[in-house]
């Protein structure tokens, strides 16, 4: 299983939004410039995030996006799922019909991996990602449980 750019860009954009939140709506053009993500791609992602009640928008001059809930109430898994990113390591979509209508020999392994991945992404909230980002002064840092615990947050 691999996470595509859709899920990675959605999480990246949401961390950017949350980092700048509270100071008024954040423009997609600003996120696009700071994160080097196409504006048209961000528009597609934020349409899905808005429809899933993760962000809200303000139209017109001075408009943009802001979080629909506090950052500690939005999980990485929720962001990824909102943009239609599959969190599935199976080849059958979890249906168990991988081999001629029956589960393949490794089906349970892949289903277990799905659970672990989902549980981890569900345990990480947007505020934790912002805290790690702020702790490292905006440097790109891989997110891990060690990074989050050292940032003084809990999973």
Automatic annotation (TrEMBL):
Name of the protein this chain belongs to: Fe-S cluster assembly transcriptional regulator IscR
Entry superkingdom: Bacteria
Keywords: DNA-binding
GO molecular-function terms, A-Z: DNA binding; DNA-binding transcription factor activity
Protein's UniProt keywords contain Nucleotide-binding: no
Pfam family, one: Rrf2
InterPro entries: Tscrpt_reg_Rrf2, WH-like_DNA-bd_sf, WH_DNA-bd_sf
NCBIfam families documented for this protein: rrf2_super
Entry keyword DNA-binding: yes
A cellular-component GO term for this protein: cytosol
Organism expressing this protein natively: Ferrigenium kumadai
PANTHER family: HTH-TYPE TRANSCRIPTIONAL REGULATOR ISCR, WINGED HELIX-TURN-HELIX TRANSCRIPTIONAL REGULATOR, RRF2 FAMILY
